[in-house]
Every structure is written in C-alpha cells, then in structure tokens.
Amino acid sequence: MDSEYRIILNVGGVRHETYKHTLKKIPATRLSRLTTNLANYDPVLNEYFFDRHPGVFAQILNYYRTGKLHYPLDVCGPLFEEELKYWGLDSNECEPCCWMTLSGTRDTQDVLKTLDELDIEVDQTEGPELYKRFGWEDDYHNQSLSAWQKIKPRIWRLFDEPNSSRSAQFIAAISVFFLITAIIVFCLKTHPGLRIPELAPFGNFSRNHRSTSSRIHPAQINIDKSNSRPHPTFMYIETICNIWFTIEILARFASCPSRFDYLRAPVNIIDIVATLTFYIDLLSSMFGATADLEFFSIIRIMRLFKLTHHNSGLKILMHTFRASAKELMLLVFFLVLGVVVFASLVYYAERVESNEDNQFVSIPIGLWWAVSSSLFFSNFEIINFQIVTMTTIGYGDITPHTYLGRLIGSICALAGVLTIALPVPVIVSNFAMFYSHTQARSKMPKKRRGVLSMDQVAQHVKHAPVRNSNGPTQRKNMEHTPLVSNNHTPPHTLI
Hints:
Blueprint: E1 6-11, E2 14-19, H1 20-23, E3 41-42, E4 47-50, H2 54-66, H3 77-86, H4 99-118, H5 127-132, H6 137-141, H7 147-160, H8 166-188, E5 195-200, E6 222-230, H9 232-255, H10 259-264, H11 266-286, H12 291-295, H13 312-323, H14 325-352, E7 367-368, H15 383-390, H16 403-421, H17 424-442, H18 454-462, E8 465-467, E9 473-475
Parallel strand pairs: 1-4
Antiparallel strand pairs: 1-2, 3-4, 5-6, 8-9
Helix pairs in contact: 7-8, 7-9, 8-9, 9-11, 13-17, 14-15, 14-16
C-alpha cells in the first residue's frame, strides 16, 4: 500500500488527497514545507487544515500535479492572485492561454485605481472621511475642532463637490452659467456688427489746434472699419462674470485640503491665468488697449475645460486621450510615414509620363494631397496633396493626371483609411471601459459593512466578556490562550 506516501489537505472544509512527492515538485512554497509539527496538523484525522478558498486550491493542486497553472474563470482575479501569494506562487506563471484573462484583471484594477485618482465622486465624503482629507481626523474624534476647521470642509464641498448638497448644486449651476456666458460674450464681441468702429484721423486736425472758429465737415470724418472696439456692454458682462470667477478661485484656494495640489492642477492654472488676463485687459483698456495685449485674452476660451469639473463624462473623455497616448502617437507616426512615402511616389509618377498639367512641382506639395486643407504654391505643395488624400478629405485642388499617379492616389486613400481606422477601436474601447466602470461605481451602496482584520479580531477575542457558571459576567484575559487546541501537540506557528 502507498498510504504512507499520501497526504490529506483539508482546505476550507474540502478534503484533497495527493502524494507527498507531488508537493515537492515546486520547492520553496508553503505546501512543499509541510511537517507533522505544524499547528494546523490534526494527528487524529491525519490531515492538514487550511482556512482558504477550496475552489482556487483545486487549480493550485493541479499545478503541482501537471506543472501548468490555469486561471479559473469562476473567481475574481484579485482573489486568485491573493490565494497564489498565500501558497507562495507567482501569478505570472500562468499558461499563455490564460494571459488574456490575467491581463484583463490587471487592466480592471488599473482602471479602478485611475478612477480613484480622477476624484470622480461617487460616495459623498462625510464625517471622519471628510476631515481625514484635511488631516484633522484626530481632532474630529477628540471633538477639538476649531470654528475654522468646521467651516473650511463645508466651503470646500460647496465649491468642489457639486453633488454633495443642494447648495453645492446651486453654486455649480451658477458657475456653469457664468462660464457659458463668458464664453458666449468672448465670441460675440468679435462679430463686426457688434463692434464700434474707430474714427480715423484726418488732416492735421487735432484737439490742440482746434479753435471755436474751426468747423468740421462730415465729409472730412472717416470711419476706420479695420480698427474697432467691442461694445461697452460686453465689458460690463465680462466684469460680472470675472468677479464670480475671482470669488470662486479665492474660496477654493482658501478651503482646499492642499494648496500645492490646487495650484498644480491644470484646470486651476487655466482659470487663474484667464482671470488675470481679464484684469490686465481691463486696465489696458483704461489706458488704451493694444492688439498685442488683446491677443492674450484668447486664454479665456480655455475655461471650457472647467466643465470637466462638473461633468464626469468629460473628465473620463480627457483621461481616455491620455490613456490612449501610445495609440495616438502610433497613428501620427504611420500617418507621417505614409504621407512622405506617397508624396515621393506621386511626384515621380507624374514625371514619368508626358504631362503638361503636372501640378506636383515638388515633393513637399504632395503632402498637402494627404493632410492639409489649402493650396500653397511653394515647395511644400506635393506634401499638402498627400495629406488631403490620406485623410480622405479630397478637396480636388491638386489631382494626378497620369495613370500611374492615379493608381498611387487610390492606394494612398486606401492606406489612409486603414491607418486612421485601426487605432480608433482602441480609443473607443478605453472610453467604454472607463465609462462603464464609472457607471458601476455610481450604483454601489453608499455605505458597506466593514470587515475586521485578523489583528482586530484577536483584540476582540482577547478582551471578550465571558460568563461564569455562577452567573456574573467577567472579562477573561486570553492573551496566553492558544487559538488552536494543543491536546495532542504543543502549539506551533502556522506556516
């Protein structure tokens, strides 16, 4: 009989039986070091007990038998990796057929970690969690918060967490209203019909030489339509909007948990710079605005990125482009490669045959044929032709006239479709993944039951109240009481 070579493992109430030499196949693991001196060995039943997941252990034991580790599909990925870590195994030892499953699990963990970093609020931070973000958790539990420590988190939630309360939603609505109004005003004040033309200077007439006897004839007054200024009403509206933006910036800066993180955020930098440019423009208009200073007001249009603060979908979209940076760079690389190659081919193709209408006077103009949107009569015209074709725009301002050139143009258009279309599903997949996880997080319960750790359980057991046979409840010190019965063997440490 080979019973002396067999070993019984009780994992989570399920008994597994195998040979001892099977567990020795993978050295330096928990199962390869089993001895009868361990505290989890039961000499009566002649088995080792492990309070672990029995379903996962079936795959682990099969790994010892066959030398191939397969990823189970009926358990969560982090649970499987945690069990492997407990048994002293590496999750990277999975078979190639399970790499996609393992990679998908890790991608999900990365997505959840990224969503936490994006600060997309799902649960409203209240109580200890709210004051923990400010580093005042101890003061909150000790009830030693000052008046400012009580008010500061509330102000921060009003301006930074739109869904925390009705007041926060009202402030968010005001912020969005002023933001959209400022953008509309910024666009409308450039319309020629809403601007006031400047009076052009005429002759040697000036205020210093003007006398009471001087007469100005209407024919002498010229209107300079090329130079005009916005209607004063736009300045009044912008002033009101920027007063609100200033109040919002000061309130958020004064109440934020970390001022360094606040000043480091790109959206906050744009908001501060855009507000400063308005005040600079306002002061400049009092002393005569110049076109150079007015150019910097274009920064205010960047305030549109503030909408990501009020909409999680926009925030996810922005992060999708960051997460798809490799695919976008690959797209640009292949696009540039195709543009240069086909621009060179079409240039020489049009010169091989006799062609009086040859529009490809140089290779650079061919790039426009693939990407750009206007014709440059210079050395860059062939480059432009190539760009229009690869992006399938096809303006028709530059066209090949030879058969070989048209063949190259057809291949160029087909290559452009493939080059642009292939990376798009990856970007769409990233957005769908982020968005689906965000929707799933929003449906999670607001408060979940907490689970004590083993150290906390030991503390509860140590100071647990017990009842004597006489009746009164006493508190028993269980510091030296072993957790495992030692009727047969002395207590040892679990491996």
